[in-house]
Hints:
single chain, alpha/beta, TIM Barrel, 11 helices, about 15% strand, binds 2-phosphoglycolic acid
Amino acid sequence: MARTPLIAGNWKxxxxxxxxxxxxxxxxxxxxxxxxxxxxxxxxIGLAAAANAAAGSRIQVGAQNCYWEPQGAFTGEISAAxxxxxxxxxxxLGHSERRQYFGETDxxxxxxxxxxxEVGLVPVLCIGETLAEREAGRLQExxxxxxxxxxxxxxxxxxxxLVVAYEPVWAIGTGVVATTAQAQEAHAFxxxxxxxxxxxxxxxxxRILYGGSVKPDNAAELMAQADIDGALxxxxxxxxDSFAAIxxxx
Length: 250
Ligand code: PGA
């Protein structure tokens, strides 16, 4: 099944609104020159400027998280409904930094995912094991728990837009990239979990992105793997030349 690759930049807590807008403008030609989808995920404060800069281009703009209630007395939170109203298309959910530093669990990721689907945002569900979990032989157990936990109660019809990002925690921001064999093996396992949850046809349509130290020089080899359908890029998405080179590598 042909899946359109998705190259997503996770800007984390970097770039001012003006810097983000300038980066989007600089990426417009690279996005125009590829058949892949291109997404950037700025900070909440940078979303409007990035979306303005992206208007009329092939660059899509998403957020890095959302809260599950539509509105209310939740100081400091941003709902999926507000993101949708701001014209955004995607939202990252369950990034390992959210799980590690902000106490997110499979259950709260599931609540956010349901809220995102409800308003028509494309959820990019982030999963991945720590080094200790991998070394203890728990890779499959951890991925199974994260996938089934995040997708609990949801069927193929509701998950038609789902994107998954497999990001081994030990490869994020470390410069240590998973080998292509390690990445493909994990992706194939994630797809088998999706087959169990959604059925074969729906699972075959889900884009599974690889994330963790993706750079211009390793992107093409990763992306050539059968079950790797794009990349979620942190550090290398902050500069136009490196992100454009990753886009061009698809
Ligand atoms: P990295 O981050 O590319 O800087 O390793 C990836 C991510 O956390 O999404």
